[in-house]
């Protein structure tokens, strides 16, 4: 679908990807702070469903993988499985400081992160935890990359 | 029903050309209204269409050939049988042949649910299997009372044709039968409070957990068509009014089936999900009781008529 010519069908698909992004949320050892902030994006106050964003239960249905937490040794295999189960095209969003830099857990022997050592990451959302506004902004950015086909490609590293 | 009429019924109205946009409109309205009931703005009404296009444009996951045949065949069969139901509904023209035959319609209406159960097992995912088991248990619990109510209506009307049942069933049978059918409709659409087969967080959407991209798009389409087919079936079965003009009948059918959507949405957003035991108890106790009442009244009336 990522052909360079911009026919009518291409434009339709691009528009559909922009308007209907389904998220899969994976906690790879997060303290639950970022998870709460992500879930609050779905509440009436922020209501991301306005732009078609939906939190899906199965990675097979998802377009955007939202990872929170430094990747611990126990969750690495789950992360790799889930990343492999998601159909292409897919975007990966690192929510919070942990997946970006391991945060305060840096140097721990049980941490395998940061996230981009294991899977390619498209968007980093900084913060400990980031505010819902910022999460929405980051996901919107990821959706834009997804629609335009400018994703960080490659399999599990 | 000649060939041209059959083609028009299955491809134009009330078939494919009407049912697909109508199904998306129904699902979109359901999502929008549910969001409004929860104090949110909600997605635009065209959302199911965009979801469908996006899912079609995903790359398929690598699978074994046999799996692809099975997993693609089931949603196609579900879509086809929903279209079949719609084509056979006695809405505007062609009230001959199989059109409006109760037995055929009930059989076709069951196929999407059956496909979903098989798909859950065929996906070989533990979530799919649990979802399929729940769907099977619940659909047996819903089907027995529903069939009882339909048999009662057909017995009382003395016919198996949908239009005749709709217009000639006496009210003493119609009211309990209608109560049963209304209890069973949310079960067949898998919406709250009886959405336990496709619980999106605890079961990862149940039977559809392993479906991605195009196959999931087909399932979404089948679900949309199920909405149109089931509401259409209930409307043609229960609205005791037929105008002489086919166009007017068609309009009545469209408006009345669409009017069911806000009611079902209200039910879905006002209730929480029931457990399996609670769902089956509700159906076996209350739906079966009203179906039994309808059956009893229709038998008594039939004996009295002789």
Can you describe what's shown?
With 157 residues, chain A is α/β, with parallel strands linked by helices. Chain A has a single domain, classed as Rossmann fold. Chain A has a five-stranded parallel β-sheet with strand order 2-1-3-4-5, sandwiched between helices. In chain A, helix 1 packs antiparallel against helix 5. Chain B is globular. Chain B has 306 residues and is mainly α. The two termini of chain B are 34 Å apart. At the A-B interface, helix 1 of A face helix 3 of B.
Keywords, please?
heterodimer; A: 157 residues; alpha/beta; Rossmann fold; five-stranded parallel sheet; 5 strands; globular; B: 306 residues; mainly alpha; 11 helices
Give a topology summary:
The complex is a heterodimer of chains A (157) and B (306).
Chain A: H1 8-19, E1 22-27, H2 33-40, E2 54-55, E3 64-68, H3 73-85, E4 91-95, H4 97-101, E5 123-125, H5 132-148
Parallel strand pairs in A: 1-2, 1-3, 3-4, 4-5
Helix pairs in contact in A: 1-5
Chain B: H1 3-11, H2 16-37, H3 47-56, H4 65-88, H5 102-122, H6 126-157, H7 162-168, H8 171-189, H9 213-238, H10 246-270, H11 276-305
Helix pairs in contact in B: 1-4, 2-9, 2-10, 3-9, 4-5, 4-9, 5-6, 6-7, 6-8, 6-11, 8-9, 8-11, 9-10
Outline of this structure?
Chain A has 157 residues and is α/β, with parallel strands linked by helices.
Q: Give the name of the CATH architecture of chain A.
A: 3-Layer(aba) Sandwich
User: Mean pLDDT across all residues of chain A, rounded?
Assistant: 87
Give the count of helical stretches of chain B.
Answer: 11
Largest sheet of chain B: none
Helix content of chain B: over 70%
- Considering residues with a beta carbon less than 8 A from a beta carbon on another chain, report the largest interface and each chain's count: A-B, 24 and 34 residues
Task: Using the coordinates shown, work out and report the CATH topology of chain A.
Answer: Rossmann fold
> Which spans of chain B have pLDDT < 50 for at least 5 consecutive residues?
none
Q: From N to C, what is the helix and strand string of chain A?
A: HEHEEHEHEH
Described by the principal axes of the CA atoms, the overall outline of chain A is globular
- From the helix content, strand content and strand pairing of chain A, which structural class follows? alpha/beta
- Main sheet of chain A, how many strands, which sense, barrel? 5 strands, parallel
Ends apart, CA distance between termini of chain B: 34 Å
Q: What distance separates the N and C termini of chain A?
A: 25 Å
Beta content of chain A comes to 5-15%
By oligomeric state, this entry counts as heterodimer
The structure class of chain B reads mainly alpha
Number of domains of chain A: 1
Number of domains of chain B: 1
Radius of gyration of chain B: 19 Å
- What's the CATH first level of chain A? Alpha Beta
């Amino acid at each position: 679908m990522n052909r360079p010519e911009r026919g009518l069908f291409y434009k339709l698909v691009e528009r559909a990807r922009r308007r209907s992004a389904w998220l899969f949320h994976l906690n790879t050892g997060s303290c639950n702070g970022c998870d709460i902030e992500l879930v609050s994006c779905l509440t009436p106050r922020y209501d991301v469903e306005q732009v078609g964003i939906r939190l899906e239960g199965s990675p097979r249905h998802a377009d955007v993988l939202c990872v929170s937490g430094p990747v611990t040794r126990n969750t690495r295999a789950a992360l790799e499985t889930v990343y492999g189960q998601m159909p292409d095209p897919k975007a990966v969003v690192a929510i919070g400081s942990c997946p970006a830099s391991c945060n305060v857990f840096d140097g721990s022997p049980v941490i395998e992160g940061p996230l981009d050592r294991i899977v390619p990451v498209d968007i980093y959302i900084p913060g400990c935890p980031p505010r819902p506004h910022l999460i929405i902004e980051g996901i919107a950015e990821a959706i834009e990359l997804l629609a335009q086909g400018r994703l960080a490609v490659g399999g599990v590293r | 029903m000649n060939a041209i009429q059959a083609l028009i019924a299955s491809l134009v109205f009330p078939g494919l050309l009407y049912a697909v946009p109508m199904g998306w409109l129904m699902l979109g309205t359901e999502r929008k209204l549910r969001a409004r009931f929860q104090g949110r703005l909600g997605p635009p009404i065209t959302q199911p269409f965009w979801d469908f296009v996006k899912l079609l444009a995903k790359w398929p996951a690598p699978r074994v050939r046999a799996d692809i045949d099975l997993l693609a065949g089931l949603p196609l069969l579900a879509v086809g049988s929903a279209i079949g139901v719609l084509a056979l509904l006695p809405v505007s023209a062609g009230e001959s042949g199989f059109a409006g035959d109760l037995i055929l319609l009930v059989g076709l209406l069951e196929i999407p649910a059956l496909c979903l159960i098989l798909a859950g097992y065929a996906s070989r995912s533990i979530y799919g299997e649990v979802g399929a088991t729940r769907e099977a248990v619940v659909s047996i619990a819903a089907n027995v009372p529903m069939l009882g109510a339909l048999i009662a209506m057909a017995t009382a009307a003395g016919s198996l044709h949908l239009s005749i049942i709709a217009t000639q069933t006496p009210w003493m049978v119609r009211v309990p039968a209608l109560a049963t059918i209304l209890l069973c409709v949310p079960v067949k659409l898998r919406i709250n409070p009886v959405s336990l087969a496709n619980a999106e967080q605890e079961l990862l959407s149940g039977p559809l957990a392993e479906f991605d991209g195009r196959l999931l798009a087909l399932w979404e389409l089948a679900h949309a068509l199920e909405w149109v087919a089931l509401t259409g079936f209930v409307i043609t079965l229960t609205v005791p009014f037929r105008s002489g003009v086919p166009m007017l009948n068609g309009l009545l059918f469209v408006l009345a089936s669409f009017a069911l959507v806000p009611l079902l949405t209200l039910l879905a957003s006002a209730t929480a999900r029931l457990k399996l035991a609670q769902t089956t108890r509700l159906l076996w106790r209350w739906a079966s009781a009203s179906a039994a009442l309808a059956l009893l009244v229709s038998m008594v009336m039939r004996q009295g008529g002789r």
